[in-house]
UniProtKB/TrEMBL annotation:
GO molecular function, one term: acyltransferase activity, transferring groups other than amino-acyl groups
Native organism taxonomy: Bacteria, Bacillati, Actinomycetota, Actinomycetes, Micrococcales
PANTHER family per UniProt: AMINOALKYLPHOSPHONATE N-ACETYLTRANSFERASE-RELATED (PTHR43877:SF2), AMINOALKYLPHOSPHONATE N-ACETYLTRANSFERASE-RELATED-RELATED (PTHR43877)
Coiled coil: none
Keywords attached to this entry: Acyltransferase, Ribonucleoprotein, Ribosomal protein, Transferase
Protein name as annotated: Ribosomal protein S18 acetylase RimI-like enzyme
The keyword Ligase appears for this protein: no
GO cellular component: ribosome
The species this protein was found in: Ornithinicoccus hortensis
Signal peptide feature range: none
Amino acid sequence: MQIRALASADHAAALALWEAAGLTRPWNDAGADLRRALQGPESTVLGGYLDGAGLVATAMVGHDGHRGWVYYLAVDPAHRRRGFGRHMMAACEDWVHRHGIPKIQLMVRRDNVGALGFYEGLGYEVSDVTVLGRRLRLGEQVPATESGQGQHPEDDRDGTQPDERGPGEGVRR
């Protein structure tokens, strides 16, 4: 398998591969993720190519200046169990290393036991952190609170103001 930057002609094939691998979610625009990753020097999408078969694997890799991240590691179901996922991860690690970043991370859904076992087999360990997230509405102004911090109106559904919450009290949903 040859690994190189994803060819523009293969964007649709990459999206189809992500769908076939179960990596996409209806609330997430995978096409927009792909375009953003290819726009800047801090990220790319790698493609794994086989003669006669074309694109058989992908991995989105990038960094935030502190750590590397891997997303959308996918291997065509017809080409699994041949070491292609391992080769794609090695290429991601090499990309991150060449960019001078000292560590690499990825996120795996808790119920994806097969992926967890795959990454543990490569030497990845579960980190003692909790990932917090918030969906932003692109193009929408986020109003500033009196303290100057941004807060979206829906984050105050319980009727309390941020300064009325006690330590450790988040927004109740």
